[in-house]
């Protein structure tokens, strides 16, 4: 029964990851097409947040997703939920600016620096120290992104800074989303709905100040122009794809370890880069491709180093129990087998 359940979980994760890759690639292609004709990243973000707000409630109720408890204190809400909504908004806006200013493949190469931000933020926020292997794995990431930057034919400084800012915001969001899910017991999809709705309410005034006036008097959005229907169609499709992508990403994050999520995210990045290069056809050099490959390889090395670090910590927490049990007359072979079982479970995840 355990083997069947584990096999089911593995198949579920693989299916979700494959679906995540396809939807994310489609979303990036549509987003690039949209921003090339409609250079309003703040409006694109607001449309995506509106999609999350409008579609999530009825869909989750129909799907039977449990409602979250209302016993979350206001202090906790202000301390974690509101900053999470802020991070989600900023991450999306900066991500759209980067895709608007630079090719999607380069933007995702820069986002491969997420482990660098994760290590730095974990050190600052959680006071967490890493092994030398983890720090060493950051070298090819930084080197690969540097090579890709120096050889990027369509380089733009605003695009680079926006991609880095988006990556840092997503790193913070991943760290605190896991914490909120653990502390409150809220369903991961309900958390997505809460963050999307809160971000929409918080930043609607900012959108009205910066984009609304321009949109009212923008010729391309008037009904008489042919491009208006094309742009509106892309906006609707982009909102749907982003909503679906968020559902899949939060689902994967909720059922796997942060390390497994990081591996899946790195693999998704490879898939997105390959698809966008093929579909959008932006010019690249072989040295540029080498830099992208080097950065992604560094991410995989980082994930492996973090996995080994976690296994070492697991040993340190289990071995003292083994010694205590041995002193109490418990069979040492039983404890060793139990430890091996835990390792097997980690490997299966």
Explain how this protein is built.
The chain crosses the membrane at residues 41-64, 76-94, 106-126, 133-151, 189-210, 230-252, 286-305. Pfam families: TPT. Keywords: Membrane, Signal, Transmembrane, Transmembrane helix. The protein is mainly α. 85% of the residues lie in helices and 0% in strands. The protein is built from 12 helices and no strands. Helix 2 (41-63) packs across helix 9 (226-255) and helix 10 (258-280) runs antiparallel to helix 11 (286-327). The two termini are 17 Å apart. The model is unreliable at 330-349 (pLDDT under 50).
Low-confidence runs (pLDDT<50, min 5 residues)? 330-349
Q: Which range best describes the helical content: under 10%, 10-25%, 25-40%, 40-55%, 55-70% or over 70%?
A: over 70%
Strand fraction equals: under 5%
Instruction: Please trace the helix and strand order, writing H or E for each element.
Output: HHHHHHHHHHHH
Keywords: Membrane, Signal, Transmembrane, Transmembrane helix
Domain Sugar phosphate transporter: 13-303
Protein name: Solute carrier family 35 member E1-like protein
Transmembrane segments: 41-64, 76-94, 106-126, 133-151, 189-210, 230-252, 286-305
């Amino acid at each position: 029964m355990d083997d069947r359940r584990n096999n089911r979980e593995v198949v579920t994760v693989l299916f979700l990851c494959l679906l995540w890759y396809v939807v994310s690639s489609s979303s990036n292609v549509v987003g690039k097409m949209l921003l090339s004709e409609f250079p309003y990243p703040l409006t694109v973000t607001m449309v995506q947040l509106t999609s999350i707000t409008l579609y999530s409630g009825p869909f989750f109720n129909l799907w039977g997703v449990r409602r979250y408890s209302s016993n979350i204190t206001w202090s906790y809400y202000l301390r974690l939920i509101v900053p999470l909504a802020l991070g989600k908004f900023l991450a999306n806006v900066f991500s759209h600016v980067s895709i608007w200013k630079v090719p999607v493949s380069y933007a995702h190469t820069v986002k491969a620096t997420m482990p660098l931000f994760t290590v730095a933020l974990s050190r600052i926020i959680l006071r967490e120290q890493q092994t030398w292997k983890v720090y060493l794995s950051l070298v090819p990431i930084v080197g690969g992104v540097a090579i890709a930057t120096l050889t990027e034919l369509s380089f733009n400084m605003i695009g680079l800074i926006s991609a880095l800012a988006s990556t840092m915001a997503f790193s913070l969001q991943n760290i605190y989303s896991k914490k909120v899910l653990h502390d409150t017991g809220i369903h991961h999809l309900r958390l997505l709905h809460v963050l999307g709705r809160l971000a929409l309410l918080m930043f609607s005034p900012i959108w009205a100040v910066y984009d609304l006036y321009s949109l009212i008097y923008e010729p391309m959005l008037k009904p008489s122009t042919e491009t208006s229907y094309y742009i509106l169609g892309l906006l609707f499709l982009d909102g749907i794809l982003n909503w679906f992508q968020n559902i899949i990403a939060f689902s994967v994050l909720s059922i796997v370890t942060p390390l497994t999520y990081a591996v899946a995210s790195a693999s998704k990045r490879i898939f997105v880069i390959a698809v966008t290069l093929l579909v959008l056809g932006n010019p690249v050099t072989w040295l540029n491709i080498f830099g992208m490959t080097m950065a992604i390889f560094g991410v995989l090395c980082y994930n492996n180093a973090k996995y080994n670090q976690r296994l070492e910590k697991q040993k340190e927490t289990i071995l003292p129990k083994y010694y205590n049990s041995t002193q109490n007359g418990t069979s040492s072979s039983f404890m060793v087998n139990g430890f091996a079982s835990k390792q097997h479970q980690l490997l299966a995840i």
